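Below is a complete specimen:
___
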Amino acid sequence: MNAQKSIAEINREIVECRACPRLVEWRERVAREKVARFRNQDYWGRPVPGFGDPEAKLFVVGLAPAAHGGNRTGRIFTGDRSGDWLFASMHRTGWANQPTSVDAGDGLRLLGAYVAAIVRCAPPANKPTPTERDTCLPYHLRELAALTGVRVIVALGSFAWENSLRAHTAVGGQRISPRPRFGHLAECDLGDRVLLGSFHPSQQNTFTGKLTEPMLDAVFERARRLAG
């Protein structure tokens, strides 16, 4: 089965998943109650699959969909401030065809890149439990197996970094010791791939200046060099 068919199958299974009762209840309640600024919109309210180029050299992974971002639009990092920063940077560095991501039908295409999250449902307070994280891990492993062209994994935040390392060992990769510490532009050689760290483009980081546009662009420029 080729990468496109494999990814399509994985995504169908993700969208139908109801394995975590707490996440199911939360994502659906958020979709019913909404917030005032989106009260006239229909929310997705289901697990959010990854999206992008099946022939990707770059895999970008975050924590989970935002309650009123991906959980509303049905596409990861779409319709929220983090996505505004992420896709603008990916556009500036040649990984996306446009700088904005408003809804799932806005024409955004990723160029040699694929974007997903460790946890596929929006969690309360943006904090999944360890059990919820582990329940979602097989989807992530299957994506990594299907995306055979990936040479660089960009982890947005420490959660994505730690779970990318867990995914590496889960598929038989050698445990790395000492364990690499997360940091902005931190790198870890995984053998056939490189793990690259980035501060998450959350409002907490971008509003305070912990993450700037040049800093985020530097991550994707480095990913370009590593991907070859």
Notes: The chain has a mean pLDDT of 96. The longest helix spans residues 130-146. The chain is about 40% helix and 10% strand.
